[in-house]
C-alpha cells in the first residue's frame, strides 16, 4: 500500500495517508513533477499508460510521483525518472505550486507539487506499466497541440507548461 505525505499550505508534513484514499478525500499532499529538455531545446513528454489509475492515456511531462515517507522531493524525482523513463539527469527544483482539480474515477488531485527540470539527450527506455509512449517536441509545437487538443494533456501539465518555459528562456544560456 503506497502512502503519500500529507502537508499543510506551507509544505509542512502533517501525516501520511494511503495514496488512493488521499485522492478520494481530496487531501493536500506532496508531489513531484519532472521536466526534461534536450540540448536542442525540445521537451520530453510521456503519454501515461492506459493502466494508470487516473489521467490514463494523457500526455504529460517526463514523469510525476509522490515522495514516499522519509524521502526528499529530489530523491523522489530522480527515482521516478529512472523508474518510468529509464534515464538520469541532473535535476534542479525550479518552483512549487499548489493546485486542486477533479479527475476521472471520482478522484481529486490536491497537491503541493515540487517542479524539477533537467537536461538530457538520452533516448528513454520506458516502463510500459507506467508509460504508453514518449516523444521529444518543440515548445512552439507543444503549445499549438495543447491549444488544439487540451483534453489530450494532464491538468497539472497544462497549468505549468508556460511557467516552465519562462524558466527555460531565462536560463537558456545554461541549456
Descriptive notes:
- The protein is α+β, with helices and mostly antiparallel strands.
- The protein has one domain: Alpha-Beta Complex (Nucleoside Triphosphate Pyrophosphohydrolase), CATH 3.90.79.
- The chain is 26% helix and 35% strand.
- The chain has 4 helices and 9 strands.
- The strands form 2 sheets. Strands 3, 4, 5, 6, 7, 8 and 9 form a 7-stranded mixed β-sheet that branches. Strands 1-2 form a two-stranded antiparallel sheet.
- The longest helix is centred in the C-terminal third of the chain and has 16 residues.
- The radius of gyration is 15 Å and the shape is globular.
Put simply, the count of helices is: 4
CATH class: Alpha Beta
CATH architecture: Alpha-Beta Complex
Task: Decide which structural class fits the backbone.
Answer: alpha+beta
User: What are the low-pLDDT stretches, counting only 5+ consecutive residues below 50?
Assistant: none
Amino- and carboxy-terminal Cα gap? 39 Å
Question: Could you tell me the mean pLDDT?
Answer: 93
Helix content: 25-40%
CATH topology: Nucleoside Triphosphate Pyrophosphohydrolase
Number of domains: 1
| CATH H level, superfamily name | Nucleoside Triphosphate Pyrophosphohydrolase
- Taken from the alpha-carbon principal axes, the silhouette is globular
Tell me the radius of gyration: 15 Å
Range of strand content: 25-35%
